[in-house]
Design brief:
alpha/beta; Rossmann fold; six-stranded mixed beta sheet; about 35% helix
């Protein structure tokens, strides 16, 4: 059979140049346009990659916003074809906060396609690129548990420091020494009380002051202040604080700040404890007086100058002490100005003015376990309003929040105690980290240091992944080594969408 073959006619052959004349420009345009689109896409991907990299790198300097922005700008200045983007008003799109960085990069690609548009008289066509990166600290929920045990204050008639370091106080000079005051029943073998202390007035003055500030308790309080400063400086973090044994021996703890954000908090940041020891006249308010240059000697009993944060929480509260009628009492209990006590008190001040209580830790640390259990409840319980607040403040990384309980104490619970094992199991099951900071200071009796070492060894033998221990033996080690390590413990940053 004969096959039918197509043979183009002369007319068909004449159409090919026409087809080529029509199709070739289109093909060239498409090819050049593909080059333009490819260049645009490449620059776009590079802008996103570089903005993510630079934001993550600069975020490592937070909460130092100035340094973080300097690092960001320095990195951008080394880029080719990319710069910090600007809004319609010409303002750079860059936001640096204590907990995150948001900024954009922009660039342009000059279009080769313009050679086909030159006849139209239009200007150079530009493909503009603008990409944004948003990096945020992986949010943390932290609860500090701070010891205020009687182990942290001097025994009666045993005060620390040289005589010259404890000058006379204007407050004690102004108020008459007690003579016939009903102190109630006194127990001679109770180290929390000083029988006949009014007969040893100069010694008592120094001892009472050191229930607030001394070589053991002060470093612990300043460590807690440092941690609260660092952990609360990130706007996406929440922070709570508990003291143990606290004011109530039955509960074993006192909450001075429940778990919540710092930013925009209109109320007092911490709760004031109206603590007063009837037999020794020790209270938190005594610590306020001791730190007040107008009431105490200018040298403030040889203490370091009052930190800059003291009394600066709320500028609208001009007075922290209600002077009306306070001088006619031996001890002016309840004489703090309501504005300072209820509205202006910061968490740092609540820690700074905390007096060591007259209670010791439970023999096996049951009070500390009670505080840990309270911290656990605050970390895991949340109603819908709280969940909505968390989602609003933390965005898509809210579920990644890291939860920690940090204990600063001269003792830790007995690891062999069943209630402690149960508490540790709950923390592990809920992915909550426990950080123990045992402070084995030089004023701690040797038998208590030995007990602490024994419990630390027993805890180490358990090999718990959710328990970290940072022991400190001196105030310098606590401040210069331990606190920096704990404050940066597993700090991470993530890209936020």
């Amino acid at each position: 059979m004969r096959e039918n073959l197509f043979v183009p006619s002369d007319q068909d052959r004449g159409s090919l140049p026409l087809y080529m004349a029509i199709l070739l420009p289109i093909v060239c345009c498409m090819a050049i346009l593909a080059v333009d689109v490819s260049a645009f896409q490449a620059l776009r991907e590079r802008a996103q990659k570089e903005s993510d990299r630079i934001a993550l790198q600069a975020a490592q300097a937070l909460p130092d916003t100035v340094l973080a922005e300097q690092l960001l700008r320095s990195s951008v200045s080394r880029l080719k074809d990319l710069s910090i983007s600007k809004n319609n008003q010409g303002v750079e799109n860059i936001i640096v906060t204590s907990s995150g960085i948001t900024f954009g990069l922009e660039g342009k690609v000059d279009a080769f396609f313009d050679v086909f548009l030159s006849a139209s008289g239009s200007g150079q066509t530009v493909f503009r690129v603008e990409e944004q990166a948003s990096v945020q600290l992986v949010p943390e929920d932290n609860i500090l548990i701070i010891s205020d045990s009687a182990n942290l204050r001097p025994l009666p008639a045993q005060y620390w420091g040289e005589e010259a370091q404890w000058p006379e106080s204007k407050y004690f000079n102004f108020v008459h020494a007690p003579e016939n005051i009903d102190l109630g029943e006194t127990v001679s073998d109770n180290p929390a009380h000083w029988n006949d202390w009014w007969q040893h007035w100069p010694e008592y003055k120094r001892w009472a002051t050191q229930t607030c500030y001394n070589p053991a308790f002060s470093p612990l309080k300043f460590a807690a202040v440092s941690l609260s400063d660092i952990l609360s400086s990130y706007g996406v973090n929440r922070l709570g604080a508990i003291f143990t044994p606290g004011d109530n021996a039955t509960r074993g703890f006192s909450t001075i700040r429940d778990l919540r954000f710092f930013a925009g908090d209109p109320q007092a940041q911490a709760a004031w404890a109206s603590y007063f020891e009837r037999q020794s006249y020790v209270s938190d308010e005594a610590c306020v007086y001791f730190a007040d240059a107008s009431l105490s000697a200018e040298e403030r009993y040889g203490l370091p100058p009052a930190p800059a944060f003291v009394f600066l929480g709320n500028q609208s509260c001009q007075e922290r002490i209600n002077y009306s009628g306070w001088g006619d009492l031996y001890y002016p209990a309840g004489r703090l100005a309501p504005c300072f006590r209820d509205q202006s008190l910061s968490l740092r001040e609540a820690i700074y003015f905390r007096a060591a209580r007259d209670k010791t830790h439970s023999p096996r640390g049951e009070n500390i376990i009670a505080a840990i259990n309270e911290a656990f409840l605050q970390l895991v319980q949340a109603d819908q309003d709280q969940l909505n607040t968390l989602a609003s403040a933390r965005g898509n990384i809210s579920a990644q929040s890291y939860r920690k309980i940090i204990l600063l104490s001269e003792q830790i619970p007995d690891p062999q105690l069943e209630s402690f094992s149960q508490a540790l199991a709950r923390l592990s099951a809920n992915n909550i980290q426990l950080i123990l900071i045992p402070f084995a200071h030089e004023h701690l009796p040797q038998e208590q240091i030995d007990l602490l070492d024994e419990r630390l060894q027993a805890l180490k033998a358990l090999g718990l992944s959710k328990v970290a221990v940072y022991r400190a033996d001196t105030a310098e080690e606590l401040a210069e080594v331990v606190i920096p390590r704990v404050s940066s413990f597993k700090r991470e940053y993530a890209l936020r969408s």
